[in-house]
Design a protein that fits this description.
With about 350 residues, this protein is an alpha/beta fold. The chain has 2 domains: about 250 residues, 3-Layer(aba) Sandwich (Rossmann fold), CATH 3.40.50.150; about 70 residues, OB fold (Dihydrolipoamide Acetyltransferase, E2P), CATH 2.40.50. It has 10 helices and 13 strands. The strands form 2 sheets. Strands 1, 2, 3, 4, 5, 6, 7 and 8 form an 8-stranded mixed β-sheet that branches. Strands 9-10-11-13-12 form a 5-stranded mixed β-barrel. It is globular and about 60 Å long. The relative contact order is 0.11. Bound molecules: S-adenosylmethionine. S-adenosylmethionine binds next to helix 3.
Length: about 350
């Protein structure tokens, strides 16, 4: 786990007290959540970049590790054989997360802010993350054989037109969005999904179909919920700030030019619940339909029960239908992925 010792060495601003740090994080959080018009301002402020490092960067590293774990295993082969471009890389939490999975491919960070860029370079140097290069604009990137473009909490900061322009310029084989799990972000991602499918891409995660999203136009949104372990230092800050960085909602979507596998799988959509005799909840299935499934515990072994108790929105399950309980309500037999 990343310790604050490294951040103390690279922060552009030395906080005089914990309370100054806490106030600065609160100020930054206000900008992210309620003052979006000021979103560009923190990027040239050393104090707020310091606050970003101690709170958002420190918590985004384990968040990104969890995202990678939630995605289909095939993503690791793709990452390992690509040139990875992190658009809006900030202090490069993605590169730190990739390092822990042994992804040694060439990594390019694109970052507008010089302060963020400097922090990213210092972090990669301190942690010995190799083959990393940083530029301030997509235009400065060289030609690449197999680019893998990742938007890490940055798609929500740019316009849809700009995002499309970046994709058209880079023509990546793969695109991954790791974005805040809010309704607004989902609504912005939905037309992107349609555009990407109409262009050349197939959804690899979370959907099992290339058809229209079943909750498009509904007063709901598709997102995943991560349960993240934070360091004691971060936990202490979270308690003072009264902010939860353990249960983190995320909009995680992976697109590729490679054809998506045609396996019968479903992604947990919401309300995954353990009852005395079963696990049940709403899933989005391979036909792109939201259905309610119930898995009886008596059909599972102890290990499967333990695993399933940890499942949340975003986990994927394979099953065969046992019985139709009602319209769109199924009792199913779980098929173990492992
Ligand atoms: C919320 S931060 C995310 C940082 C990091 N990826 C993370 O997940 O912690 C968004 C970043 O996107 C960068 N950004 C926004 N628009 C950009 C653009 N047009 N070109 C390059 N970077 C941009 C900002 O400078 C900022 O550092």
């Amino acid at each position: 786990m990343l310790s604050y010792k490294i951040l103390d060495e690279i922060t552009p601003y030395r906080f005089r007290s914990e309370s100054e740090l806490v106030k600065s994080i609160e100020e930054l959080s206000q900008i992210f959540n309620f003052q979006r018009e000021k979103i560009g301002e923190y990027l040239s402020d050393e104090r707020l970049i310091g606050a970003y490092l101690y709170f958002y960067f420190a918590t985004n590293v384990p968040k990104m590790k969890q995202c990678l774990e939630l995605l289909p295993r095939t993503i690791f082969e793709e990452l390992q054989t690509s040139q990875i471009i992190d658009f809006g890389c900030g202090p490069a939490p993605l590169f730190v997360a990739l390092e822990s999975f042994g992804i040694k491919s060439e990594k390019w960070g694109v970052e507008l802010s010089s302060l963020m860029l400097e922090a990213a370079e210092n972090i990669c140097e301190k942690l010995g993350i190799e083959k990393t290069q940083f530029v301030q604009s997509v235009k400065s990137l060289p030609e690449m054989k197999k680019p893998f473009l990742v938007f890490t909490h940055s798609f929500n900061e740019i316009s849809e037109i700009e995002a499309k322009r970046i994709i058209e310029t880079l023509n990546p084989q793969n695109i991954l969005f790791i974005e805040p799990g809010t309704k607004d972000v989902f609504k912005k991602l939905t037309p992107m999904r349609e555009w990407l499918i109409a262009t050349d891409y197939q959804v690899q995660y979370p959907c099992h179909t290339q058809h229209a999203c079943p909750i498009q136009g509904e007063d709901d949104w598709c997102h995943q919920v991560l349960r993240v372990n934070q360091t004691i230092e971060v936990e202490r800050l979270c308690q003072i700030l009264k902010k939860d960085r353990r249960n983190l909602p995320v909009c995680l979507q992976w697109y590729s030019k490679t054809e998506a596998p045609k396996i019968k799988q479903a992604t947990i959509f919401k309300n995954w619940n353990e009852t005395k005799f079963s696990f049940e909840g709403w899933v989005c299935n391979e036909a792109g339909k939201i259905v309610f499934v119930q898995i009886m515990k008596k059909t599972l072994d102890k290990l499967q029960i333990k695993k399933m108790a940890d499942y949340r929105a975003g986990h994927q399950i394979k099953y065969v239908i046992d019985k139709e309980l009602d319209i769109d309500k199924l009792r199913v037999q779980y098929i173990d992925n492992d």
